[in-house]
Design brief:
59% strand, mainly beta, 5-stranded mixed beta sheet, Maltoporin, Chain A
Length: 749
């Protein structure tokens, strides 16, 4: 990685020297328009009958002091962001309308970003990707047809920042609580020879995390070079980086939080305890007392990922344009952790004899590694006339991933050689074609139609990392599945004036199971695909001083995969298809600008999220629970924004509220995530001079009122008798940072 940074550092210096004599020959607006062709096929427009929100590059830059993308989006309607480290850096995620990250389709320039196996996006695998984003559109619900995994809660459509026609650059420094820091430098060549343009960026983000030892060390790069000849753009793009994150995926009980809400149990080393005189502590029966004697330093997740795209955009005439993007992503890494009192047989290791003692259990260090390749092509053709807009798209992608694990050391066994205890491989083919049409049939009416065909072939074989007691060995894998989905969407939009827009739509979406849905099962109980029927009706108003939106949705699921409380044959939490479930609600958004220096914004989502005739499983016993609330689905999500701005000064007061959430689908009051309300104050001043474009000084006061809250958690029940009323409960939570600061200085030239 040092060589990569050295290369890009030299490139930055070369670009700065070369660009001094460059003279632009292409209009910047024309250059920007040709660069956004690759996302037009998958983005919604003002007349598209779906609910969506957008953020420009400038809006993202104002908030981007070092946090991950979910923390930048948490003020948008229906969005809830979570962070394991507690401060929005490292292991972060988000939910939309209560649906988790595995059901949110994410693309960059139309290229899928979701992991092909888990369907999630691990944001620290692409460090500081927020600094590379030119714009974001978040579509809620099934959305429009896109590439990659199915959208069951929303779609996040991102573009990289466009190449600039002018020479310039940026340097940014951030520092704040928990030793959170960010350094970034970027440079734009402008047009070289009237045809070429190059951009490059290097950045580093570091943080100790709010949670103890939940540190992040993230290094990233982005490089893009483009050629323009008026109607054609060819752009080569590469971004990625190296991440090292201390694991923090184990939550705390309420009792632990009362003692120390920043405690991180990951990496604990258990051993015998001694008194002040060095004598071993014994219990009442004379047995040695054990406890935490230290922490393992290398209890970390380490990953390198590079994303590469070759983009060709061509405008044939005012009506027709074409995009073709070839892409290749390479990822490799591992996480290494210390495990206490492990049963050796469950790793395929027989009893070990050392110093005359036979060990059936031992503390050990294990490493789980993966290597994956993902590549393919996405393409679209666009037609636009006064009355008709047509999009034709296709994609074909292939994923190959290897998983393997080793036991590196066994405590008390000095001559132990690293032992590989599992290895498996996944191959996945994913192809789709779609067509969209927006037809203006009258002065005020637009009809929308969208149909997608998607094919998936998913193959998993080898030996898994779970011990299967039914066979007395590691779980064998031999899974081959084919899926063919047809996803139609129709809608109508009515705009009697340019200010008013009334719309309605009906969409079908289908989604294949994830890797874990196959590996964490009971023998023979394989999952099926899921189906979503999404009906939405909304109204938008765009005025000079006021904008408002109301959206009603009803999302009916067939065979939705949910965690049931059961355990698989290998002891993992089991997901099972539930026949019927739904989400319905109303989304409200308002923005008022009564004067030039003040803007007020607010949004709220009120919803019901239910499983019909849910059957819960506790200690192997089934209980019929009737209609229950889906886990992690708050009935109210709301946010407000007060924006004061005058002569370079800006003050933003952001407040977000999330109501109570259940941690399981059984709707038990003992297993809930408490409601919370948190406010942030963002202060900034921008100074412009003749020699530089501007200097921006920023300070964010996060969790302004020092609220003690948790944004995520997990839990379960056990039976203390024969009935569901005779039960016990356990739950763990992820505490978020209390009042903290983060300052930033950004120089743009």
């Amino acid at each position: 990685m040092k060589r990569i940074f050295f290369f890009w550092g030299c490139a930055l210096c070369t670009l700065a020297a070369a660009a001094q004599t460059a003279e632009p020959h292409i209009d910047s607006v024309e250059m920007y328009r040709i660069q956004e062709i690759e996302v037009k096929a998958t983005r919604a427009t003002a007349h598209t009958p779906i609910a969506h929100s957008s953020l420009s590059g400038e809006e993202i830059a104002r908030m981007n002091y070092g946090g991950d993308v979910p923390s930048l989006l948490e003020m948008l309607p229906s969005v809830v962001a979570t962070s394991e480290a507690g401060n929005g850096i490292g292991a972060t995620s988000m939910r939309i309308r209560g649906t988790d990250a595995t059901r949110i389709n994410v693309t960059m320039n139309g290229v899928p970003m979701n992991d092909a196996e888990t369907h999630s996006v691990y944001w620290y695998d692409t460090p500081d990707v927020a600094s590379a984003i030119g714009s974001i559109q978040l579509q809620r619900g099934a959305g429009t047809s896109t590439n990659g995994t199915g959208a069951f809660g929303g779609s996040l459509n991102m573009t990289t920042a466009p190449l600039s026609t002018e020479f310039g650059g940026q340097a940014s420094l951030s520092y704040g609580s928990f030793n959170t820091n960010k350094q970034q430098v970027a440079i734009h060549s402008g047009l070289l020879g009237g045809r070429w343009a190059i951009d490059a960026r290097l950045s580093h983000i570091g943080s100790d995390g709010y949670v103890e030892r939940a540190s992040s060390n993230l290094c990233s790069y982005m490089f893009q070079a483009g050629y323009f000849n008026g109607r054609t753009m060819v752009k080569a793009l590469s971004f990625g980086g190296v991440a090292r994150v201390y694991l923090s995926y184990t939550g705390l009980t309420k009792e632990q939080m009362e003692e120390n809400r920043r405690y991180n149990p990951e990496g604990e080393i258990h051993g015998p305890l001694f008194d002040a005189a060095g004598r071993p502590l014994l219990d009442d029966e004379g047995a040695p007392v054990t406890g935490v004697v230290g922490f393992y330093d290398n209890h970390t997740d380490n990953y390198f990922q590079t994303n590469n795209q070759l983009i060709i955009n061509h405008v044939f005439n005012p009506q027709w344009s074409l995009n073709a993007t070839a892409h290749y992503t390479r990822g490799s890494g591992y996480y290494q952790n210390y495990k206490n009192d492990q049963t050796l047989a469950e790793y395929g290791i027989g009893e070990v004899v050392t110093d005359g003692v036979t060990l059936a259990n031992a503390n050990l260090v294990r490493r789980k590694s993966m290597l994956n390749d993902f590549g393919g092509v996405v393409a679209s053709a666009l037609y636009s006339s006064e009355r008709v807009s047509l999009s034709l798209g296709l994609s074909a992608n292939i994923y190959g991933g290897s998983h393997y694990g080793k036991i590196l050391t066994l405590e008390r066994v000095a001559d132990f050689s690293p032992y590989e205890y599992y290895r498996n491989r996944t191959t996945k083919y994913d192809a789709n074609i779609f067509a969209k049409v927006d037809w203006r049939v009258g002065k005020c009416v637009n009809l929308f139609a969208d149909v997608q065909y998607r094919h998936i072939t998913h193959r998993i074989d080898g030996v898994n990392d779970n011990f299967d007691p039914t066979v007395g060995a590691m779980q064998p894998l031999d899974i081959l599945r084919h899926y063919d989905f047809v996803n139609p969407k129709v809608g109508v939009s009515y705009s009697p004036t340019t200010n008013h827009n009334l719309y309605g739509s009906f969409s079908v979406a289908q989604k294949e199971p994830t890797r874990n849905n196959f590996t964490d099962i009971r023998e023979g109980e394989y999952p099926t695909s899921e189906l979503l029927l999404d009906a939405e009706v909304g109204y938008r108003y765009e005025g000079k001083w006021i904008s408002a939106e109301v959206n009603l949705y009803y999302m009916h699921y067939k065979d939705q995969l949910v965690l049931t409380g059961e355990l698989s044959d290998t002891g993992e939490l089991l997901s099972r298809n539930v026949p019927k479930s739904f989400r319905r609600g109303i989304e409200l958004a308002l923005s008022v600008r009564p004067c030039a220096w003040f803007t007020f914004g607010a949004n709220a989502t009120l919803s019901q999220n239910r499983i019909i005739d849910y059957v819960d499983h506790i200690d192997g016993v089934a209980f019929e629970r009737g209609n229950t609330t889906i886990a992690y689905s708050p009935s109210l999500i709301a946010g407000t924004l007060f924006d004061f701005h005058v002569r370079g000064f800006q003050a933003l007061l952001r407040t977000r509220y999330v109501s109570k959430q259940y941690l399981t689908n059984g709707q038990y009051e003992e297993l809930t995530l408490d409601r919370y309300c948190v406010s942030d104050l963002d202060l900034s001043y921008t100074l412009s001079t003749k020699r530089i474009r501007n200097v921006r000084f920023g300070l964010v006061l996060k969790n302004l009122f020092n609220t003690a809250y948790c944004s995520n958690g997990y839990g379960g029940l056990w039976l203390e008798g024969a009935t569901i009323e005779e039960r016990g409960a356990w739950a763990c939570y992820f505490p978020q940072a209390r009042f903290n600061l983060l300052g930033n200085v950004t120089l743009t030239f």
